């Protein structure tokens, strides 16, 4: 999917919501455990109930890998279901990969070709030659970790390097990598006030923003400081939506929570 | 496996060799492609021919994920084969994972419980709460990326933070994390002269050292600057061993290359 198509979908749906599909068998409605593939059954119900309210889904691969082969099969079924039934949806493999050159190419093939995701999250620690292999894939997007939403972000990401915080050095440096137009960035909502400075460095790049809701971030602040001319924001919510209820009406409850966020986003899209 | 058991195996085998199982179907002997599971058939042959010459195997998960479900099954078969037939071998999932707290716990379960590896490589960018969940597993080891062997290591890892290079900040900071005795570190052989300073910070920790051979690192230099009182080194070689030949005698050729390295290691173990 191109960035222009993503922006067009955001305007059509009046939403820049991304729903995180972080499926934990201990948290899903227990009646689903009788299903042949409970993880996929859960995802399918959530997707069918919420696809018109969001523009992206983001399975975090950890939750699938933890269940071994069955988990990987559920991930494959989920991405195939999305690509077949809702091709207008932007799909994100939240995998936080990153390795040396030829190995990064293998990861890129895993997520862009074998699983046919539109994008994958990648860690920057190993530098340019660990990220550029992902950037060579046309109409695929690499979402680089910049400033994450957890407490550990302050261990290294905000330390000063070359008179600026490390995450800003990551933003600055990565702008010069080959095919950097295929980069997006992870920036946590819990540090919304940092977004203004981030926009000075990358005025137009899309930001994937976790941490609204469960982790305490505020949607209005994120939009105030982070919205760009082409919106430039994907706000992720996982637990707050998918675990809104664990009774038989869980998918409706998820849709209700998603709609609350979509309506707030509609207001923000009018404001800017 | 405990660190003491690993050291004991190193002394018994007179080897601190780790063999990287980075299986690329384009590079393995073509007669194996007729097998039901060519990746596992290749690994099994390599393992059976080399297990007495090395103390560790390190599959890089990228190479398995790139083949989807079949790749993941081959990885599972490989680790099960190792654990059943060669339980004295230290196993490393070279996955370079790292995510926020509850998600890192899922990754830890994937590699330590579901796949039953002894260790996993983890990226430090997201800080303490992304790594500590891995450290809670008893007799399991978390191998943190410090200074990698690729060119991109100079993009961020060697930049100055708090008057020292970022990778040294990672070493210093991680020493204070809970259960830090379960940490090991990735330090590339291509920067062997950095090892003396690294040993000032972490005198006893085990180092996983890639980059000997194909990437230009020198075994003697690594030992000179990096060997600790309890050896403290695992030297990885992947392509140089497993792709030594691609005819029907490929496993013997791999064993020959592994033995060359083991004999050099035997000399180094006597020297220090």
UniProtKB/TrEMBL annotation, chains A, B:
MF terms in GO: orotidine-5'-phosphate decarboxylase activity
All residue ranges annotated as the Orotidine 5'-phosphate decarboxylase domain in the record: 16-254
InterPro entries (UniProt xref): Aldolase_TIM, OMPdecase_type-2, OMPdeCOase_dom, RibuloseP-bd_barrel
Pathway(s) this gene product operates in, as recorded in its UniProt entry: Pyrimidine metabolism; UMP biosynthesis via de novo pathway; UMP from orotate: step 2/2
Gene Ontology biological-process entries: 'de novo' pyrimidine nucleobase biosynthetic process; 'de novo' UMP biosynthetic process
Coiled-coil segments on the chain, per record: none
Catalytic activity: orotidine 5'-phosphate + H(+) = UMP + CO2
Positions of the catalytic residues: 96
Assigned keywords, A-Z: Decarboxylase, Lyase, Pyrimidine biosynthesis
Family note: Belongs to the OMP decarboxylase family. Type 2 subfamily.
Name of the gene this protein is made from: pyrF
Organism: Seonamhaeicola algicola
Highest taxon of source: Bacteria
CDD domains: OMP_decarboxylase_like (cd04725)
EC number: 4.1.1.23
Protein's recorded name: Orotidine 5'-phosphate decarboxylase
Pfam families, alphabetized: OMPdecase
